[in-house]
Design goal:
Layout (H helix, E strand, L loop, with lengths): L16 H7 L16 H4 L6 H8 L4 E5 L4 E3 L7 E7 L2 E6 L5 E5 L6 E2 L12 E4 L3 E7 H10 L1 H14 L1
Antiparallel strand pairs: 1-8, 2-7, 3-6, 3-8, 4-5, 4-7
Helix pairs in contact: 4-5
Length: 165
């Protein structure tokens, strides 16, 4: 299985969460637990019990600060994580065969990114920061495990994907 770090080209080859934390740039910030995040109602179902939330807290490896012009991923990059935005604004886009850029969305705080790679494990679009923001890195494999354990979480993921569509 590919590491969470492989989602960002600068971290390819980093496989252990502690190694990832050391490999992240200085602008990385300490993780915030999902159960105490002020945006959790946008990501998590409100019906989750305390024990379920504690289990979900283990999903996020780290929170990362992203600066204007910095890409979280490019089309064609292999990825196995989703990004939950805590702050900032971003632009997702594809580059057409003739080199033009076609904007596909403007994710912001409370949105998830990376769902374009859920079916194929390869991003179909690129994502760049428009201003300084923060994103929680959520390993997709671990998210799937938790969704199997907690049907309410699976339903919430389906809702989020439905909104994307």
């Amino acid at each position: 299985m590919q590491s969470v770090a492989s989602c960002t080209p600068a971290f390819r080859g980093v496989t252990h969460p502690l190694a990832l934390a050391r490999a992240l740039p200085l602008e990385s910030v300490a993780p915030t637990l999902c159960s105490t995040c002020r945006l959790r109602t946008l990501c998590l179902p409100g019906s989750m019990q305390a024990a379920e939330l504690k289990s979900i807290d283990e999903l996020v490896y780290t929170r990362r600060r992203i600066h204007p012009g910095e890409h979280l991923f490019h089309a064609g990059d292999r990825c196995d994580a989703l990004y939950a935005f805590r702050s900032g604004s971003f632009k997702s886009y594809v580059t057409t065969s003739d080199g033009r850029t076609q904007v596909t969305g403007f994710p912001m705080a409370g949105d998830l990114a990376g769902m374009d790679a859920m079916g194929s494990d390869t991003h179909t679009q690129s994502l760049v920061a428009l201003d300084t923001g923060e994103a929680c890195i959520v390993p997709y494999g671990r998210l799937q495990e938790q969704a199997r354990r907690y049907p309410a979480l699976q339903q919430q993921i389906s809702r989020i994907m439905s909104r994307e569509i």
